[in-house]
Amino acid sequence: ILSAIVSLPLIELEARIMSSRKPGDSDVLSSLYSMIPLLFLLLACVELSDAAAAVDVYRLVQYDISGVPFGSRIAALNHHAASLHSSAGADLSRSVLIIPLRELNISLVKGNFQLRLIALHLELDYVELDSATLVMTEYISQKKTLGGLLLLLPQMFNFESGDMAVTKDDIHEMERLKNLLVELEELLIHANIPYPVYFAFEHDDIEAVLADIQRNDVNGQAATPTNGGYKFVVSAPEPKKLASPIMTNIQGWLPGLKPDGDTNQLPTIAIVASYDTFGAAPALSVGSDSNGSGVVALLEIARLFSLLYSNPKTRGKYNLLFGLTSGGPYNYNGTHKHFLLQWLRSFDQRLRETIDYAICLNSIGSWDDKLWLHVSKPPQNAYVKQIYERFSGVAGELGLEVELKHKKINISNPRVSLSSWVIAWEHEQFSRLRVTAATLSGLSSAPELFQRTGSLSDSGYLVSEDAIRRSIKLIAQSIARHIYDQQEDMPVFADDSSLAVDLSYVRLWLDLLSRTPRVAPFLTKNDPLVAALKKELAEHTHEVTVQHELLDGMFTFYDSTKAKLNIYQVASVTFDLLLLLAVGSYLIVLFSFLVITTRVHGLIYNFNHDNCVSSFCLLFFNHPIDQL
Amino acid sequence: MTAFHFFNCAILTFGPHAVYYSATPLSEYDTLGTSMKAALVYLGTAIVKLVCLANFLKVSENDEFDPYQESLKALIGLVDVAGIYFALTQLTHRNISQNHKFQAVGLGWAFADSILHRLAPLWVGARGLEFTWDYILQGLEANANLAFSISMAALGSLMWLRRNKPKTLIPLIYICALIVATMPSITSYLRKRLDWHFPEVVGFELGSSLVMAFISWQLFSACQRRSS
């Protein structure tokens, strides 16, 4: 109406122009004036999106290792939806397959899905593979293509869901889902998938849509406007390479007490944890256990030792170095670059001092009663023996068990094949620089590439604060024992003392980390989490340095990790054609009806009163007699 | 496909007006000017109604049927009647018979109503991917509205332009005119108080428009026969 009001004066103007127009004036101007009101009308309308549902979806990671592509290569999606219940021979190459995690029953031999594919080819063990597994292995091994894949994850993996107690599954179900997700992720991360793959969380809207789709697929019905025929649309730009991904290492320095007159440098103990993650969906990789637990433990240990060191009487004769490193999943690239480059730069005097030993923390949040101390030097080594004795001594007092595990560093040629060059533990980077180092972990064996790097399945549910508390106590007590050279059993960090492990602090940081995805290439220099970690370390230590390193050129990442999925309920083409037919025939019938009733009626009317001639003229010439 | 749907709904909504104009003798007598003037009068009455509604009506939080508000809306709806009166009597028309005059006025009135009320939602909504039945129902409603407008114009022309009416039919004419004039209130009563859904309301409108059109046609032809 507003636009019509605006167009009123324009119509008047046009009328005036028309009335004063001399013959020969151009018609273009007047037609232009008549177009303007229509234009106003059209422009006043805003284009809105009116989908049946709009869902947040998270894309599978896309990366290259030395040019070899992995992950999902496309981001944009615009296809009809289909479910697993569609008939076996259906062509899904132009459909989006929507699969809830619960319906999968992958029983792949861990890491050996190549074996399964061979079995598939030779049709061995055919009966064991259920339809879901068949679908997954077939489509992901590229024997068939899909238009897209949407995986529905249970709410327990959703860090944004707020209340942690929202899950409706029991413990066994949660365990099964977690294992399923771990295997699925492994499958997806190492595959090269030419269509978009997205993750979404179960929600009422999308479950209703899925139920509809499944019902239609089971019945084999074609899409009709009222039930079925859903179209999934994700409008995302083409994924671009992330230029120069940066790893940010944060280092906090707590100096020890140098006795007067002593010119020697003090020895240093380093405590290191990597804080970044890698998972199947970079926007969802929060890594509560790997390595959120390590980061939380490091911060709490820093806090405790800063309390100890604040008083000169209790300050030990060791410097403490707290390192939050990035690039963990990529063979601890950050650790390597940071410490190696630091030491090669001769201007940084302090780090040329001897690091007595380094303790790396990895996944200490979900163990029951046993921790492992992984070393690369043989156990007979005097230093290793000393460290292990301290740890196991304290562990015995606390009622835990610590076992020593030795693994040689893999020093084969890094460029030969990727699987042979995996720095299994962070301490190996230190060992390569001839520093005694060990990793304390709840994992018993070394993870493979991109395994246990804080992926989707590593959600806040699976971490226990008590496990972290006990680990903190263990580490802090062992280090204190080493610093203060205690022989007897004197608990420094006893409960109910001012140096007790602060559970609320642990909980606070664990909660924050469980809600922040931390994939290193997507963390910018000014990322708020990095700033927060830096600020926190600065509070507990004397001096904090932040170093930015470029990620190893072997890894290339692509952006576009999060998008919005619009679900539309569409009508088929046949419906539109039928509607056109119906409306067309209606208009034709209306036309004929009106012609018959009005003209014939007029004819009858005229016939009744006027002479036949005029009615004759009306009928055959369609003009009243006056005009003829 | 969605532009296709927009096209379908557009011809359903605006097609009947064009068909009516070309099928009946209106096109021969070149009554386009009358229709356009009637459309402008509709625009004017729409503005007056808006102003009155804005001044006198309270916006209710919930969608309930408040008798006081609804009667106020019905009163303001009588401005419509005044508009038709103005269009029929005060505007100068070329020399066309009564028969065609009310048809042209009714047609112009209905066309303006459809354009103003239905074009914008159609343009915005029907072109999206999502399918709803709303726009088809809206088109059917436009058809019903066309029938109502022409019946209203017929009854109006009977009431104000015809001097000698049969005495028995006069009250009937006025009753029919009242019914047609208060039709918006009736539909909103159905929608809100009785909780009818849009398809049912449109069905009712179509049925009642056919009935009213037939009645007013009979009345008009009866008066025509009587007077001539």
Automatic annotation (TrEMBL), chain A:
UniProt KW keywords: Endoplasmic reticulum, Glycoprotein, Membrane, Signal, Transmembrane, Transmembrane helix
One example of a Gene Ontology biological process annotation: regulation of signal transduction
Membrane topology of this protein: Single-pass membrane protein
Subcellular location: Endoplasmic reticulum membrane
Pfam families, A to Z: Nicastrin (PF05450)
Residue intervals passing through the bilayer: 577-596
Residues in the signal sequence: none
Transmembrane is among the record's keywords: yes
Gene Ontology cellular-component annotations: endoplasmic reticulum membrane
InterPro entries tied to this protein: EF_Hand_1_Ca_BS, Nicalin
Main location, first listed in the record: endoplasmic reticulum
SUPFAM superfamilies hit by this protein: Zn-dependent exopeptidases
Family stated for the protein in its record: Belongs to the nicastrin family.
PANTHER family the record matches: NICALIN
Protein name: Nicalin
Organism of origin: Linum tenue
Phylogenetic placement of the source organism: Eukaryota, Viridiplantae, Streptophyta, Embryophyta, Tracheophyta
TrEMBL record, chain B:
Highest taxon of the lineage: Eukaryota
A GO CC term assigned to this protein in UniProt: endoplasmic reticulum membrane
Alphabetical keyword list: Cell membrane, Endoplasmic reticulum, Membrane, Transmembrane, Transmembrane helix
Alphabetized InterPro entries for the sequence: TMEM147
Topology relative to the membrane: Multi-pass membrane protein
Keyword Endoplasmic reticulum: yes
Membrane-spanning intervals of the chain: 39-57, 72-92, 168-190, 202-220
Protein's cellular compartments: Cell membrane; Endoplasmic reticulum membrane
Pfam family, one: DUF2053
Family note: Belongs to the TMEM147 family.
UniProt cross-references to PANTHER family, sorted A to Z: BOS COMPLEX SUBUNIT TMEM147, SMALL SEVEN TRANSMEMBRANE DOMAIN-CONTAINING PROTEIN
Protein name as it appears in the record: BOS complex subunit TMEM147
Lineage, highest ranks first: Eukaryota, Viridiplantae, Streptophyta, Embryophyta, Tracheophyta
